[in-house]
Structure formats: structure tokens, C-alpha cells
Amino acid sequence: MEIPTEIGNYLPNISTLALSNNRLTGGIPSSMRRLSKLELLFLDNNLLTGEIPSWLFNFRGLKDLYVGGNRLIWNNSINVEIAPNPSLRRLSLKSCGLVGEIPKWISNQTGLRFLDLSKNNLRGELPEWFVEMHFEGLILSDKEFTGSLSPRLFSKFSLVVLALSRNNFSDFNPNTGLAYIDFSFNDFSGEVPTAFLVRTRFLALGGNMLSGGLPFNLTNLSNLEHLELQDNNLTGENNSFQGSIPQSIFNLRSLRILDVSNNNLTEEIPQESHSLVGMIKTSNFPSSIIEINYLAYATKWFKQEAKVLLDYRDLVLNWKKSKQGISTNKLNIYTLLDLSNNQLSGQIPTLLGALKALKLLNISGNKLPGKISTSFGDLENIESLDLSHNNLSGSIPPTLTKLQHFTILDVSNNELVGPIPDAGQMGTMVLDPNYFANNSGLCGIQIRVPCPKEQLTPPAKIEEDDHKEPWLLWESVWIEYPIGLLLAIGIMLGNRYFTLPAPSNR
User: Which helix (H) or strand (E) holds 491?
Assistant: First the structure.
């Protein structure tokens, strides 16, 4: 479906036109230039094609212009003229084919507070005039920007959201009050900065070359919900986090997503890990990260207008055995703990089972000994549990059969023995045999290895009364089997000795 070519003639007095996320095709009709009273225009995340007309900037009362996330192309000619528009507050040109440096005409939009230029072909350093602008939200992800970040960029307390992921920035010192910080997958080095204020809720520094230990003084970040410090070992041991996991991290009561995978962390998983309140209780309310994405709480002018979701970045992590992306607008339903691919040792804390809101728990690729805790059966919302590539021994606890949302269990490359439970969800979900490979003596239908009869164990149940039920069922099997056998023999004997003679043919 295309935007009606005569839309400008049909709706001359309209002030808001919202057509986002409708899979619209075709171009932007020229009749829209007649919409002289237009204030909010949302055409983003469709399949629109053609050139972005410069006359879109001529609406004197236009405050929001979102054309990103289409197949539209920006005219990169140096002669293109964009008139200054002091009314323009928010502009999205995501994935619009911009090339070279940041366009100079943006400097003329003096009222601009939010700008999304992500997923274009922009490169070079940030211009001086650009860092002097008074942004409140700035999205520059997936480009080839280089150099150091000017301290002036962080000197404005009005700046709330700053997303610079997947660039080549190499230096920063964010003495800032940012609430949303995404500097992941750049070339930052040195120790983890700690000059963040209490309103920081999203902090992503993964995929850099940060070194040293994890910071111990993060306790002031009482509102932090999302912390990514993974993949900071890109050039060897000297560029990876080392030492133990600080207990202070587990005092962050709002934390719902913690990823410190692919580093060189050692020692035990702290017993205090069960104190992550944000991973214990399942929230029925949207995450405040989503509020940040709306920029709703930060600016007065935005509260008076329609909210626009900034769905520009996926959370990338080791989920379900591959690098997965979780859309930003779904973060409110995910609670994740990823400690994988480190050098952690010592027993798995039994109290990890208290994190009932967890969707994903990944502690694979460490040196963890001992048995799998039966308390994992209390992770009532868990979908993916990865314990592979450790030194775990003993059997897989039957308590895991209580988990109703279970889709992935990977215990490969350990020293486990005994039957793989096949009751409950574990009896219905599709299990990859590779998830049980390279253990000492596992058996079960999942891997097509029959178990000796003496190893068969009943599944665990949640309630005490239900706990007795499986044993009653097993007892009834052993009682009813011989009774049924005797009855069958009796019937056969009865048929032999009490069969009526066949009638004779005369």
C-alpha cells in the first residue's frame, strides 16, 4: 500500500500525520507540501523508496520529522539547501543513505533536541559545531566515526540519551549525568569509568578494550537496570577484566540485565548474587529504560506531545547458543544474567535459585565444579539455562522438570552421569543431543542411550502432596503388573479348559 498521492489535498488542515510501521511502499507524495499546518510527521519504519524531498523542512511549524528506517535516500549533494527551522525539535534520518561527514545544514536547526543519524555511512570526527548543540538525545550508532569524544559533549546536563555503539571512538571521560549510555563496540581502552550519576539506568560498554578489574564503586547507581561489560578481551589478557566479581555489583537492586561474559574474571560467583532484587521479582510495569527511550521524563516539551519509541538498538548477547538480538522495546520483559566464558571457579551458589524472574542464566565456559543445584528448579521464569563447558559432576536434578517455560538446557562438556529427566517441560521441548554431549555417563531418550532400570528416577513435584504422587504411580505399576499378568494367564487357561465344543456338521 502506498501513501495516497492526493493526501495533501484531502487533509489540508491536519497537524499530525502518523504512518509509522505500516509497510508502506512508494515515495513521499509531492501533494504533502500543501500540509502547511503540519507539526508532527511520522513516516519511519516503512518500505518507502525514492529521494527525501528537501521541502519537508519548509513547514514552519514542524516539530517532529521521522523518516528513518525506510529505503529512502538523502540527496548528498553539497548544493542541497535546507532552510533553518527553529521549530524542529526531533529528527530521525536513520538508514537514509547519508555519506561523508555530518551534514552542515544540521547546525542551522537551532532548536533541535533529538537526532538519530544511525545506520548511515557517516565517518570522521564529530565537528566542533556539532558538540556545541544542545541535544537531549543523540543516536549515532553503526557508523565509522573516529577520534576522541570532546568533554564539551558531556558538559551539558540536558543530554540524557547518548548512543554511539559500533563506531571507532577511542577516548572518552564521561563526567556526565547521562541516563542512557551505549558506547559498546568501539576502541575505548583503560579502566571502566565511574563518573556516572544516580540517574544512569542503562550502561553498555561491551566490545571495547577496557582493562583492569570491574569497578567496586558502582553502588551509587541505584537506578541502574542494564549493565553490559562483555567482550573486553579483544587483544589478549592485558585488555580484559580480571580479578573477582565485586560484591557491590550485586547491591544494585534495580539491575535486571547483567552481562560480563567473555572476560578473564576469576574466583567464585559471590554468594550475594541472590540479592539482585530486580532479578527476583517479575515486574508488571514497563521498564524505566523504555521511559528513557521515549525521553518522556527528561523534557517538559515532550510530555505535552505524543510519545515516539526510539527502537534503534538491539541487546546482543549469548542467548540460545548464538548471538541474539533483543529489541529495545522488549527489554521490560527480559531479565538476564550472563557470566559465561570467564575463569570462575568454586561451587555454584545455591541461592541463585532465588532469582525467580530470570529468563536467561548463562554460566558456561568457566571452571565450576560440584553438582547442579536442585534450587535451579525454582527459576520459574527461566527459558535458557547454559551450564556447559565446566567441571560439573553428579546427575541432572529432577527439579528442573518443574520449569514450565524451559526451552534450552545445555550441560555439554561436563562430567555428569545418570538419567536425563524427561517429565514436565523437559519431556515436551525439543532437546538437541549436542546439549548433553561429552559427559561421563548420561543416559536417556534425549540422547538415545538407554538407562539401566535401577537408574530410573521419578520426576520431582512442587507441592508436598504432589511429591508423593509419582511414587504412588510407580507402586501401582508394580502392583498392577503382576495382577494383570495373572488375570491374562487365567483367561487363557479358562479358554482352554472351558471352551464350548464346536458344533458338528451333520
Answer: helix 464-497
